[in-house]
N-formylglutamate amidohydrolase
Amino acid sequence: MSVALPGSVADVVDVELLRGPRTDPDAPPDLLVEVPHGADERGHYDRLRARLGGDLPADLHEFFHVNTDVAAWALGRATALALIEAAPQRSVLLLRCLIPRTFVDCNRVADYRGGSLDAGALTPGIPSYVRDPSDRALLLELHTAYVELARQAFAAVCGAGGLALLPHTYGPRSLGIDAVDDEIVTNLRWACAPERHDTWPLRAEVDLLTRDGDGQLFAPVGIEEQLLAGFAQAGFTPTANDTYFLHPSTLGHAWSVAYPGQVLSLELRRDLLVEAWRPLEPMRPVPAACERVAGVLAPALERALARR
């Protein structure tokens, strides 16, 4: 029995269904593009910030600009369009989370407290600087609403035998900051100072998140090797599970466990996808840069779909 597709919810998620001209209108989508860090515009931040009544760090928008996955939504949608252009019988369901991870991370278990970032831990579900009980209740409500819609989408697509793509972007360098706390803005200004920013370790241009911490593969069989070769041929320097892997605190890990062999997560270096890398300021994706990534992802996804 088919599962109903989720719909858009204001300030929670935008849902879009793209169908190729030869798609069976009664068939479930072939691919889900889920972007849990899709709230990458200043307006997304401002709307939710205005709903929060408690005290928060001054100039917290600067952390938003550093930490948000700018271009993840743009490259995810570009990949959907490239797939349909190459395979007009395909259809793609797209979910763009509209909840800024500055306040609550919709790719985390909500109660995950985070850990030492310089020791490889991830940022928390709800940061410690959000203390007001009413604010925390609102953020948990929004998180629950989004996760349930995502769960519905995975059931409708992966539950019917399709695949899912979870695109992320990360900053070009591992900044020397060990925690997301009340001093996050002060510490980011220090780390991103012109005389210091380029001294931090440079990350891979592409990092495929295909395995857990024990090395168990959860991505579609063969796609790891194909993408490593494809990105290299396209002029990138790709790795797999280098900066990150499928961490159990993430919902990307949960979806991968629920649908083994059907979910692909990856990180793209954000400075390669935006007009200019300005870590404390708004940035915009460059369509041609996102299409370059899509040109690698779409053929690999189509081959994986054809094998199912």
